[in-house]
Amino acid sequence: LARHSRLTELLAQELSCAICLQLYQDPVSLPCGHSYCLGCMHSVQRSCAPGSPPCCPECRQPFESPEGLPRNFKLSGIVDGFRAAVSGGGLAAKEETVPCQQCLESTYVCTHDHVLLCMECLLEGMHQEHGVQTLEAAKSDLRRVVEVLGKSTSDRLQMAEVLLRSARDRSRTLDNTSELLAARATVVLDNMSTHITAYKVRRPNTSVYVVYYQQQLSEAQGVAESLLTSPSSDVLFISYYRALEPQLRQQADTRRLRATLATDDFRSEISNLLQCLLSLTNPLELTFNPDTRHPSLMLSTDHQTVRHRGRAKSSLKERAEGFVTATQVLCQQGFTRGSHVWAVELGSGCTWAAGLCYGTIPRKGERSKLGHNAVSWRLQWKNKNLTACHDSVSTTLTEVSVVPPKRLEVALDYDGGTLAFYSIGLHYLFSANQTGSPQFQGETELGPHPLALLVTAPVR
């Protein structure tokens, strides 16, 4: 008991202010390193001569106002723990008390070694120069750390779930696109096979016709030679000539032979099919023409994305090629022959229209809208309906679900006179003599959703 009493007195002295000789109350640290009660420092300041700065009572080093002195929270925590131990009888000697890490009276935590300490370990052990916290303060700090780590873990888990969903969506889109391209490539290859088979069937007949015409020419040559070797009498020569003239003048039916031997049509068909197959694997990269855009449309710096700004800027000057009535914009590129394919990424939550038109499409009036004249063809998503329109005649595609397509592929066969739209679950074909420049139109629904059309780069 005497030993514990002595330890208590020593600890009380160490935790007492050198001015008031009481346990520290709101201890503050001076620049010199000494600590005192905040109230005692105010008393020191009041006792100083006017105009002279207060000084440390021990080393006489001057300091500024007590309000600017930093609080010694570590010392304050130790004093609070000491008061609690003394008031609760925690410093009384007990036979079951075991000093060190397993002490039954542990009230402190060493922040350096992360071990529990009792009062005796704190005063006489190896932790005297280490940072120390009360159990309550350590628990509070650890609770905050756990909360931060828990929130961080939750955020990362949510991010992982979002990335997983995105990866699954992209995988499904890739699978669907691959199936679509494979189906279209199969159709093209089947057409090529049909043309090649038909050509092979015609080729043996060609040989038969050539032999037949050779025989005809040989017979005609024999008739001519017999006529030339006939008697020299003029009367007889004329008589032989008149008798053989029909055979000499009979011409072989070379038109049938030429039609059989012609390969130009075959080569043209195969060339078109190869061009179509090439366009499937290498879609065009198109760009918008800023000179044709409606004032309410805004283009990206690479001219591959168009958005609806909501209201036309009054400061924009009207361009000769620009649309005035319809919120539309033409592409920079145009086509005059061949087969071409390009892809369009469609914005969500908005109305959109995509199609093809001649460069002569009107720029003003209701007839300037895509699909509302004889020189344009349009596919549009509006009010949860997908419609195709040409020359103001609209057709609703009732077999299409209410979910709008996110990606659209447009295929133009200029020479064949067809314009096809492809998407997952969608295949719509215009069949007409339609040529011109790709064109896109869009307008916002009631709401803040912007129009966003993106012409993608070639798919590899």
TrEMBL record:
Q: Specify one Pfam family.
A: SPRY
| Ranges for domain RING-type | 17-60
Q: Does the keyword Nuclease apply?
A: no
Record-annotated B30.2/SPRY domain positions: 266-460
Q: Name one GO molecular function term.
A: zinc ion binding
Q: Which domain of life is it from?
A: Eukaryota
Keywords (alphabetical) are: Metal-binding, Zinc, Zinc-finger
Q: Which Gene3D superfamilies match?
A: 2.60.120.920, Classic Zinc Finger, Zinc/RING finger domain, C3HC4 (zinc finger)
Instruction: Identify this protein by name.
Output: Tripartite motif containing 107
